[in-house]
Amino acid sequence: MAQFMLPKRYNFKEIEQKWIQYWKEKNIYKFDINAKDKEIYSIDTPPPFTSGTLHMGHILNHTWIDLVARFKRMSGYNVYFPQGYDCHGLPTELKVEKEFKVSKDDREEFLKRCIKWTNEAIKKMTSQFDKIGYSTDWQFTYRTMDERYLRMVQKTLLFFYERGWLFLGDHPIHWCTQCRTALAKQEVGYIDTKGKFWYIKLPLTDNSGYATIATTRPELMPSCMAVLIHPDDNRYYHLSQKKVKLPIFNREVPIIQDAAVDMTVGTGIVYVCTFGDETDIAWQKNYKLPIIISIDEQGRMTEAAGKFRGMPIDEARETIVNDLKEMNLLEKEEDITHRVIVHTERSSCLTPIEYLPIKQWFISIRPFKEEILDAAYKMNWFPPTMIKRLEDWVESLEWDWVISRQRVFGTPIPFYTCEKCSNVIPAKDADIPIDPRVDPPPLSKCPKCGGKIIGTVDVCDCWIDSSITPLIISKWSEDENFFKKTYPSSMRPQGYEIIRTWAFYTIFRCLKLTNLPCFRDLMINGMVAGTDGRKMSKSYGNVVEPEKPLEKFGADALRQWGGLGTLGDDYPYNDKEIEYNLKFLTKLWNACRFTSAHLNNFDIKKITEAKIELTPIDEWILSKLNNVIKIATESFTTYNFHTGLSAFRQFFWHDFCDNYLEAVKYRLYAEKIDPAQIIAGQYSIYNVILDSLKIFAPIAPFIVEEIYQSIYKKDLQIPSIHLNSWPTPRYKVREQLDQIGALSIKIIGEFRKEKSNKGIPLNTPIKKAIIQIAGDRKVFDQIEKDISGTLKIDELIISHDPPARFFHNSFEMPEEKIIIHWEL
Ligand SMILES: [Zn+2]
Ligand SMILES: [Zn+2]
Fold this sequence. Notes:
Layout: H1 12-25, E1 40-42, H2 56-74, E2 78-80, H3 90-100, H4 107-131, H5 147-162, E3 166-169, E4 173-176, E5 181-183, E6 188-203, E7 210-215, E8 224-229, E9 243-245, E10 252-257, E11 270-273, H6 278-286, H7 313-326, E12 330-343, E13 353-356, E14 360-363, H8 369-377, E15 380-382, H9 387-395, E16 401-402, E17 404-405, E18 415-418, E19 424-426, E20 453-455, E21 459-460, H10 462-466, H11 469-473, H12 480-486, E22 489-495, H13 499-514, E23 519-525, E24 528-529, H14 547-553, H15 555-563, E25 571-572, H16 575-597, H17 616-637, H18 641-669, H19 675-696, H20 701-711, H21 713-716, H22 735-757, E26 766-773, H23 778-781, H24 784-791, E27 793-799, E28 809-813, E29 818-823
Parallel strand pairs: 1-2, 8-10, 15-23, 22-23, 24-25, 26-27
Antiparallel strand pairs: 3-14, 4-5, 4-13, 6-7, 6-12, 8-11, 9-10, 14-16, 17-21, 18-19, 18-20, 26-29, 28-29
Helix pairs in contact: 1-20, 2-15, 3-4, 8-9, 8-13, 9-13, 14-15, 15-16, 16-18, 17-18, 17-19, 17-22, 18-19, 18-24, 19-20, 22-24
Bound molecules: zinc ion (ZN) (2 copies).
């Protein structure tokens, strides 16, 4: 029997703290792999990079994930919901270098600091996760820097190597001279920038004139290996078979005809350098041109650049242009806007990319394009349009994946090489995880040539770590039983902006490692925009840290904001909306507080549902409840929380609080009411609120727990609302009564509108009213009491005839064919 009263004011701060503690102590979200009779639902959550703080994007993404976990748990699934952390990365290295002034060269100390820093960051982020009511089971957390994680990553690399899919190569790679590391195709992108075309005259070796090229990069002249013209370009027919002599460097290079030359750009004559861009790489291969590297890993000119050696790229460019001017070989300069490939993955870098043939580790991707897409087609994408992003990406793939990075804090690559012949020697499976930078090789010398064996110094691209999250959470290669039960992941939540990286790499790697598609569903979220609609960014000054709204409005209000976002769409942060969400919470609180006082003498255990004598308005609200349960269930099942949440709030605030509660009140207060009718009202209130709390539980876990514990726990004996089962539309409603109930709600509503239009307080009694009807009188027999009770009408007459005398007020409800006459 309900006994408790809620405190008068809704204080989210107290409530949140209390339940975080309680859920932890009682292990409410514990996952048991061996739980019987429940289907497992596993979530491959994104491990956030350990920056030390969650941003609003995380809040949106992880609110959705938590919502799914809670909904599935209540729907009877055994929910496996681990949360990991992505630890490795350049930003940590930069922080450690800057804050602790430890150099990368002091590797051991440097790594120690990175790990320490990361552990502290994880602590802060974990407490933020707790604050938003995140229902992960922390027992299953992972960190990509853990030994267990390193072992599994290295195991997958050995697996790929054994099958010939991982190799050491010297294909030119994208190189950032600022970050001094190789980059994957996904980490670079094009931006439009102002630049120049320099028209340079290259003297023909037979002294018959010049071939004039137009280039944006004159500093690459020392790397020039050929000059190209289009075979159909009649302007230059005379140049075929000739050679030019490069000014300054005095080297002769051939003029070659190639149909890939764009005749419309510049002069239609280009020079091929190793390497200016991707077409240069193709031409170098096609014509087996020699390779001369004139820019080094730090973005300075090499020995090959002769007197320009040691100059930064920009300075070399300027000096060479000046020299050419003096030699009268610069025909003209032209200002242009052109697309330049830069390091886009770090928005603070944006350094132009160089193509350097530095030995790197690669994983083959191109042969697997079709199987990757096949696997992706087997998954359910929410929203379905998002698979297009993956298709486009896969179809555009032309490069293998360069997986090595010239950094320190990362997963070591478990291979050694022969210094002399580059023979690759993999680590032994029994030895991993290893760090070839410090651990001795498995062999003392190269089995091929007897040369010295050296350990790989590079570490893995972070996506190598994070692309096996479905395997780490399912304990692939560690625990067969666990793996079978939890792989493939039931659902992968992630942002659309990392479909071509995280989703792509995961689908690819896990497919090759297990022969199975790695997810059943993908739930794709958009990015959080600032209040001005632009992407949240420090440079726009529109960044909102989650702490602010959490402090001001509380987690349940913030989570509602998250819940109202729509699949795949960018979503603006909005203070006003969160404030409104808090109002809704207060409304819920007050309604529950008011009604709980009227449930004190109500004992659900003594109720036989079949014997309850529901009135039309009871049937009406229970039918509305059935409907909102249906909508919420359907929308949450398809990861579309917006629809379910909006419908629920509409139902609770307007149908229940504004209409039903107003119409049932008189029954709860009045003395001369048939006890059966009181019980019917209490029964309806009790169930509407209980089911409402359940529907709202995934979205606002704190407030519903507080109310549940005060009112329902005694009856239900379940330690938390979050362990209750999801409501079903179980109320048997007679359609006819539901309609009659709707009619009385409408009449009451119209009456109240009339009163308020006339400036009459809503609780002012009405002396006499006549409802003049055209239809069946019996209908009104059943609602007469609700109408007069709610509106405090002393004398209510239902009549087919107009009143015999004049009434001061009257209004018409044409649809219902009713005219109402009334006076105070
Ligand atoms: Zn960079
Ligand atoms: Zn060797």
